[in-house]
Amino acid sequence: xxxxxxxxxxxxxxxxxxxxxxxxxxxxxxxxxxxxxxxxxxxxxxxxxxxxxxxxxxxxxxxxxxxxxxxxxxxxxxxxxxxxxxxxxxxxxxxxxxxxxxxxxxxxxxxxxxxxxxxxxxxxxxxxxxxxxxxxxxxxxxxxxxxxxxxxxxxxxxxxxxxxxxxxxxxxxxxxxxxxxxxxxxxxxxxxxxxxxxxxxxxxxxxxxxxxxxxxxxxxxxxxxxxxxxxxxxxxxxxxxxxxxxxxxxxxxxxxxxxxxxxxxxxxxxxxxxxxxxxxxxxxxxxxxxxxxxxxxxxxxxxxxxxxxxxxxxxxxxxxxxxxxxxxxxxxxxxxxxxxxxxxxxxxxxxxxxxxxxxxxxxxxxxxxxxxxxxxxxxxxxxxxxxxxxxxxxxxxxxxxxxxxxxxxxxxxxxxxxxxxxxxxxxxxxxxxxxxxxxxxxxxxxxxxxxxxxxxxxxxxxxxxxxxxxxxxxxxxxxxxxxxxxxxxxxxxxxxxxxxxxxxxxxxxxxxxxxxxxxxxxxxxxxxxxxxxxxxxxxxxxxxxxxxxxxxx
Length: 553
Ligand SMILES: Cc1cc2nc3c(=O)[nH]c(=O)nc-3n(C[C@H](O)[C@H](O)[C@H](O)COP(=O)(O)OP(=O)(O)OC[C@H]3O[C@@H](n4cnc5c(N)ncnc54)[C@H](O)[C@@H]3O)c2cc1C
Hints:
Elements: E1 5-9, H1 13-27, E2 32-36, H2 39-52, E3 56-62, H3 70-80, E4 85-90, H4 95-104, E5 109-112, H5 118-121, H6 123-136, E6 144-148, H7 153-164, E7 169-173, H8 178-187, E8 196-198, E9 204-206, H9 210-216, E10 227-233, H10 237-248, E11 253-256, H11 283-296, E12 300-302, E13 307-313, E14 316-321, E15 326-334, E16 338-340, E17 356-358, H12 362-365, E18 372-376, H13 380-389, E19 395-399, H14 411-418, E20 423-426, E21 429-435, E22 442-447, E23 453-457, E24 460-463, E25 467-469, E26 518-520, H15 532-551
Parallel strand pairs: 1-2, 1-3, 3-4, 4-5, 6-7, 10-11, 10-15, 11-12, 15-26, 17-24, 18-19, 18-24, 19-20
Antiparallel strand pairs: 6-8, 8-9, 13-14, 14-15, 16-25, 21-22, 22-23
Helix pairs in contact: 2-3, 10-11, 10-15, 13-14
The chain binds flavin-adenine dinucleotide.
Flavin-adenine dinucleotide is lined by residues 233-239, 256-259, 263-265, 267-268, 271-273, 306-307, 335-338, 359-360, 380-381, 384-385, 470, 473, 522-524, 530-533, 535.
């Protein structure tokens, strides 16, 4: 913990210097002594300290200051530091004000000026108050703090981003924490935007873009070169697999992701079917290990950057980022995976991130402790989500469209779900409407067999209802199917003919797209088996085809 502060405030320079001198003499080893020559300046400093979460042990403030009396300053300052000890320096005439402020602002002590000798009149009083403060002060958190409300979608995005990048943070809910609310109000403009992120160095970011937040957190958001042997778009299992093999086989390799490494797998609470982990492992753990491995082998990582386009200028391929930056390469692997389909029912507007979450929003689960949660969907991801949420929820209702869970879920998960007391499975059930003005309150469902409708009171609904591929960046460049999945290898040969515009005297390789040198791996491919192992395998395999391709250009 940083040295706690003792702050002294007085508008008379001579008195201020004298107090400072005496405080330094006795306390400088253990405390940082800070002086201010007016209440207003002192309040500005207090806000800065609070933004850095620096502990402040004691205020020693003169009552008689022309623009802001000592008691008025203490009243404001204690909104930021309610547990700091408060001492007023008074003259005889101020005794009454001092006594009444014992009640109004919880003044701890008042000292008559002059306090000489300090060994008798100052230090014993302050020593006593400081030892009291030490006994009750909580150790302040000195990492990143995120202040917002549970119902702000942008707060959810920031928390999710930090969690997925393994960056620890403290969450301050301004609806339940007055100190945090005061801090947010002091740090933002009139139109309050959330979340407010307090960095350890005192910088304050209001509803930051992920790229800016990533930079401040020390993540790599820029490429070091303008050209690479291999660029991989998407750092899920397929992209990470490709990066490990590409880098280890001597290709200069850049791996880009718009959020964090790990992809969908990184949001999984427990992956039980990945080879070599008999007890399973969390997606976050897998992502952390694979990222470290790819970097150790020499792959360069660029996070919080979205690829928005791909351009071909033979024999090179170029990717462009949202800000227009282009980076070139010889071989390109698209491993951008899929995202959960949006649920389109009445009432959804404005509730995304405010009780309605897409995919496994693991960071939010703990906030719904003891509540009834709904999980929409019947595939493995929904099953894993339900198992995870059941640790926190009083009840989890799985709302499944098909007639039985077994149709879309691995048997081991079906068994776990039916063996978990606080999960109920409602099959042949569709969501028809959601309710709530600024946060989810209830979910209406209908049984497709009986037509019976009912409403479940629930503040949290997690949706896992199928996938949409991330392939807009190659629109018009490589062939995709109607749903947007990328065609590769033999899927591109129709009636014995190679894809349109294909000029080479060979067929496309197994994972090659309709453009030579551009490959696709993982869930983004048409017909992909959506599993971590197959994504990793395809990522590795795609590198093999990149080598074969590079030998020919
Ligand atoms: C909750 C959940 C649990 C699961 N559990 C299991 C399990 O237990 N076992 C199992 O085998 N499988 C499981 N799966 C499936 C498995 O996670 C996926 O099959 C696998 O993650 C696919 O990997 P991928 O690399 O192809 O794509 P993804 O994991 O989807 O990764 C794609 C990456 O590309 C990035 N990206 C997308 N567009 C862009 C762009 N324009 N620019 C930059 N980056 C971009 C994304 O941010 C993402 O990180 C689960 C899936 C989910 C959602």
